[in-house]
Amino acid sequence: MASTNDLKNGMVLKLDGGQLWSVVEFQHVKPGKGPAFVRTKLKSVLSGKVVDKTFNAGTKVETATIDRRDMQFSYMDGDYFVFMDEETYDQLMVDRKSVGDAANFLIEGFTASVAQHEGEVLYVELPAAVELVIKHTDPGVQGDRSTGGTKPATLETGHEIQVPLFISTGEKVKVDTRTSDYLGRVNK
């Protein structure tokens, strides 16, 4: 248990019958009249939904302990992603729902942050950008270098993104894992 006066960004609270909410931002407000209160912006750990919630100052709230560990993606086993703890070498099977959009950017050997609460995997978080090879894209045409157009390209993971016209098959590119945006070429 913690008091609303002790809130910090990133803290995870257990509210509304056990739902986990991460504190995105908070503000202590002391109006001229009436009691002080804490205005918060909370993000659901499971769904990602963001809500505003106001607490009276000093109210007790239940905190949850989230265990975040860097784990290396090893291989796919049916619908499960198998991760290996880099310290203990224990293997953890994570279902596709918990991996979410991170599945679009995972290849063997990548390190991801796996968040667990009471032994249950909540989500898998990748770095903001990853470097992947273009498996297939239509060839560029001479003169395409100055225009601002884009074309579809398939990454080595099978995920499709939009890239500039001058990118060709076999090139390594940097991709934003949150938006699937092309960020640039990676020089070899």
UniProtKB/TrEMBL annotation:
Gene Ontology MF term list: translation elongation factor activity
PANTHER family: ELONGATION FACTOR P, ELONGATION FACTOR P (EF-P) FAMILY PROTEIN
Residues annotated as domain Elongation factor P C-terminal: 130-185
UniProt keyword terms in alphabetical order: Cytoplasm, Elongation factor, Protein biosynthesis
Organism: Streptomyces zaomyceticus
Compartments, as annotated in UniProt: Cytoplasm
UniProt-listed Pfam families: EFP (PF01132), EFP_N (PF08207), Elong-fact-P_C (PF09285)
This protein's name: Elongation factor P
